[in-house]
Amino acid sequence: MITGILLGFPVLAAFILLFIGAKFAKTAALVLTLVEFGIAVFAFSQFNPADISDFDLQLKWLPSYGIGFHIGMDGISLLLVLLTTFLLPLIVLSTFNFKYENPISFYSLILLMQAGLIGVFV
């Protein structure tokens, strides 16, 4: 379950960012990436190498055809997700001194990139 939250939150955050004004896009992106880091820290604190069933997500899409969605995390992938979620707020902070033509799209794409990176590791 926590794996699905780690993967889905940045996508949801990117869409939330689309409805926030350009004036607050930087701050909102920073807060949302910090929340994602908090979720990853929580996941790390709950990790038990003997029982990783909490870090396994299986969804059946078309059971009659045997089609489903299955993701999971082990110890090394959890560390890589933790590293990714640690670096993303730093990346957002490093962009604060620059002005962008469309900051909402820029920060939304950063959050979608975070979801993609997490998807690679789970």
Question: If you had to describe this structure to a student in words, what would you say it looks like?
Answer:
With 122 residues, the protein is mostly helical. It has one domain (2-121). Helix content is 64%, strand content 11%. It contains 4 helices and 2 strands; from the N terminus they run ααββαα. The chain has a two-stranded antiparallel sheet. A hairpin with a 4-residue loop joins β1 and β2 (67-72). It is globular and about 50 Å long. The chain starts with a helix and ends with a helix.
Largest sheet: 2 strands, antiparallel
Low-confidence spans: none
Number of domain modules: 1
**Strand order within the widest beta sheet:** 1-2
In terms of DSSP E residues, the strand content is 5-15%
Task: Name the shape in a single word.
Answer: globular
What is the SS-derived class? mainly alpha
| Percentage of residues assigned to helices | 55-70%
Extended strand count: 2
Gyration radius over CA: 16 Å
**End-to-end Cα distance:** 12 Å
SSE succession? HHEEHH
Number of helices: 4
Mean pLDDT over the full residue set: 89
